[in-house]
Structures are given as structure tokens and as C-alpha cells.
Amino acid sequence: MTDPHAPDDALATAAGDALYARDRTAHHLGIRLDAIAPGYARMSLTVQEWMLQGHDMCHGGIMFALADTAMAFASNSRGTSHVALNANIDFLRPAFAGETLVAEAREGNRTRRTGMYDVSIVNAAGETVCHFRGRTYGTGAPVIRDETT
Amino acid sequence: MTDPHAPDDALATAAGDALYARDRTAHHLGIRLDAIAPGYARMSLTVQEWMLQGHDMCHGGIMFALADTAMAFASNSRGTSHVALNANIDFLRPAFAGETLVAEAREGNRTRRTGMYDVSIVNAAGETVCHFRGRTYGTGAPVIRDETT
Amino acid sequence: MTDPHAPDDALATAAGDALYARDRTAHHLGIRLDAIAPGYARMSLTVQEWMLQGHDMCHGGIMFALADTAMAFASNSRGTSHVALNANIDFLRPAFAGETLVAEAREGNRTRRTGMYDVSIVNAAGETVCHFRGRTYGTGAPVIRDETT
Amino acid sequence: MTDPHAPDDALATAAGDALYARDRTAHHLGIRLDAIAPGYARMSLTVQEWMLQGHDMCHGGIMFALADTAMAFASNSRGTSHVALNANIDFLRPAFAGETLVAEAREGNRTRRTGMYDVSIVNAAGETVCHFRGRTYGTGAPVIRDETT
Q1: Predicted structure pTM score
Q2: CA distance B15 to chain C (A)
Q3: Rounded CA separation A17/A144 (Å)
Q4: How far apart are CA A8 and CA A5, in angstroms?
Q5: ipTM of the complex
Q6: Which parts of chain D register pLDDT below 50?
Q7: Which domains does chain D have, with CATH numbers?
Q8: Beta-carbon separation of D113 and A114 below 8 A
């Protein structure tokens, strides 16, 4: 019995692993790659004390970084590099220190050169914290580099 | 001789100092508050190695965090708290480790309850790296808290 | 047997009818109100020759007008007036003269004073033509005016 | 004495005239092309009774159409076709029947394949009514078609 999705999923996993190994920001922020598939990624982050801004809420830049990272993994999941062109984000409710936030990125559109992704961030209660929508541009470069040459 | 702008500028400076003292993310990222005036803020950041993503460029989340922080200081500069509702950002060119980025936030609109801010980020060569536009909502709370009570 | 949603649906229908009667742009463009419920509206438009721009495709302004109208009806469906603060729209594929476009607006968030709506426009083949996301502000005025006073 | 900008301006004028002749929506809405130069366009519209929505204000779709048209002319002013990918618009104050609105589009960024434009709409009192920011994609086709073949 064969799984028709397996080859693409294997590529997505390999692309995700290669990208994750090089993404220093994701490591520094403690962002985890929980799931990846073609055009999809789920990533999570636990809000640290240093991620609070002057109103004692999780900084919008941290929430954007989580959403943007999820888009990066979803858009690179097909093995060719995409970079962000622009994005918009809506902050629906605050998040606080100690909360774990989960971001899911889904492909809304994909052509050879451009992509559009919707990312939702939810908290542990399942409430939506942010809606993010971003557009990417394909550079043509492979995500998995031949590091031996 | 009196300066008609001095009282507001003094309030802006005091509000900026109060907010900066509490903004743990700005400190962690090494964001500096270089100038603040009513409806205006200029802030800067030097890109660290850990701020690079998987394509070896400054992570979009870091650039967003810098722009969002500049908006926060500009929108809180009048002494009453504003929080971000939503924002959009365009990434025009990449930034790399070691570069210093300067963000300037200017008020495009302000009512009692809402604000709109344009933030540009430029690199040392004076080239625009990002355009950011965000909207804020006034909570009514004072920025400068009476910490003695 | 009682329907717990009936009262709200009746209000939504009444608010939709009142707003539609006054919306001269919707009439001029031939926009139809196909369905309305609390936080939801479905509206349609058939692309006329005069709605084409210089590249012989449906003008982006017409597509935005359809989406914006659907958001207006969804955001006014609870009986209190909301007006648009800002919106973003992605154009995924062109539409041509003679095509009927259907817009569905869904509430993504709602507080007393603000709302967020996602609107998708699809063509007769079921393909998504546009994604629209907009934010509204509640003025506090009733949608249904007492025209007798 | 030669004007180094004259050739480009002549191309911009010719491209603007060619596009305007084909833009049926601009004609229907009464949008005027007041000025065009490389990466720039100024266009105006007088708000008609039919352009009012259910709250008796100029419909957001009409304002978007004016801004989007100005971006189209600015982005096509270099002689190669660009189409809109996405845009965001902020509605700062209402406009009413009889008012003349002026939109100015300026190029914020331009590569071979993509462009970014800022458009402001002001009323007769010089007050800003809308801020619009859009991104375009170059199709490679010439704006001026050889209609004789």
C-alpha cells in the first residue's frame, strides 16, 4: 500500500529540518517546529519574561516573529526558497508571560513566483490571539543546500 | 523667551523614559530610544548573529519588532497609553549581521481613540529596508504610572 | 418549537433591508444581498463592460467595492452602525465581463467598538478571486432609523 | 538645451493616454487623469449621489477605485504593464456628495518585477481622506499596444 502524499511530505520534512537548522532567530526565541507538510507548518513558542513590552503584554514583534516563521516554513516546504514580501497582522487579544502560543500557517495561494499564507496564533484556551496574512516571493534557490561542496 | 513646544516635548520625554524602563523586549533586542517628541520616535538596533533566519538575512520578526516598538513610543508620547490593533509591513531589501537599522515613526492620524503611524527603517547607507504602517487604540490609561501607590 | 437564532436573524434581516435601501452604490453596481445573518453576509455582482480597466480585466476598485459592501452588511447585521477603518485585499486571479462574483463576509472578531471581517470573493467555477480583510469601528448609532420622526 | 527627463515624461504621457483610453471604469466614475510622470500619477473624481453608501458617506469602494486607478497609472507610466497584487487602505475621514477628491500616487519601490506605491487622497480643504499602499507585479507586456496589427 502506498501513500500518495508521502514523497511530498518527506520533502517538506527535509526542507523544514534544513531551514530550522539554520534559523538562529527561531532557536533564540525557543520556537518549535511541531508539524510540517506541503504548504503547511505548525510552530509554537512559550512567552518568556523578556518578551514583554511596556504594558506587560507579549510584544507584538514576538507574535509577528512567530507568525512570520510559520509562514517561512510553510512557504519553503516545497523545497524551493521563498522570502517574505509583505505581511499584515491583527492583534485580537493580549498574551502574557508563561503562555504557550501555537501558530498554524496555511497556503492560500501559490504560483511559481508568489505565495500567500494565512497564519493564526491561538493560546492554550484555544482563543485566537493574532491573524496574520503574508505574501512571499520565490527566489528559485533550493532550500536544502549541498553543504559538502 | 518661551518655547511653545517645550511642555509637550517634556511630557514625551518623560513618557518615553517610563515606557522604555518597562519594555523588556526593547532591552533584550538592544533597541535604543534615540529621539522622541509628540507623535514621533526614532529608535535603532544593531543586527546580531542570532537575529538571522534560515536564509542568512535579518529575520522579518526582528525588523517588525523594531518598527512596532517605534510606533509604540510615538503613540504613547502624548502620555496616554495606546496599543497596536494591526499593522502591515513591506520588506524592500534584506539586512545583515552587524548592520545598524534606524526606525522613524511619524503620526499619520490621531483621534481620541485611534492612531495611525508610518514607520520607515533605513540602513547605514540610507536605503529603505522596510515600510511599516500600523494602527493603535487608546486605552485611556496614563503611560506614567504612580509606582508609589 | 423555538429557534434560538430566530430573533437575531430577524434583526439581521431588518438591518440589512434598511441599509440596502439607502446604499446607492450597491444599487448602481447591481450588487445583490443574497443572505444575511448575525456577523455574516453574502452578496453578488455580475461584471459589466464598464467595470473593466485598461488591461480588460474587472477593475480592482469594483472587486473591493463588492467585498467592502459585504463587510458593511455583516458588521451592521447586529443592528448598530459600524464603519470601515481600514482593509487589505489580495487579488489572486482576474475576473472578466459577464462573470458573476459572490462575496461572503464572516466576522473574525467583535468587541463593542471594533470588528474584524474576512471576505472571500469566488467566481462561478468556485475559484477564489480575492481575499479581503477589514476592520470596522462602531459609531453607536442604530442601523434602523426611525424615519417617521 | 535639452531636458534629461523629457523622453521619460513623453513615454509616461503616451502610456497614460493609451491606458486611459481603454479604462472603462475610470470613464464611468468620471475619474480624470490630471498629471502623469515616471512613477507618478495625479487623478481626481467628484463624488456623485450614486457613490454614497448606507451611512450617506462616499462608499469606500469608490475611494479605493480612485486610489487603485492612480496606482495603475503610476505603475504603468514606464511603458510596461503592471497589475495590482494587493493593497491596503485606511479611511481617515468621510467624503460627501459634491466633493472633489484628488489622489496622488508615488512610487515607493520598483524592481523589474514588483512595485510598491503610496497613494494619498485629499479633499478640497487639503485634508487627507485616505492613505493607500499597494504592490504591483510586472507582466512584461507593453502598455502601448500596436492596434494596427
Answers
A1: 0.91
A2: 27
A3: 9
A4: 6
A5: 0.93
A6: 1-2, 4, 149
A7: 6-142 (3.10.129.10)
A8: no
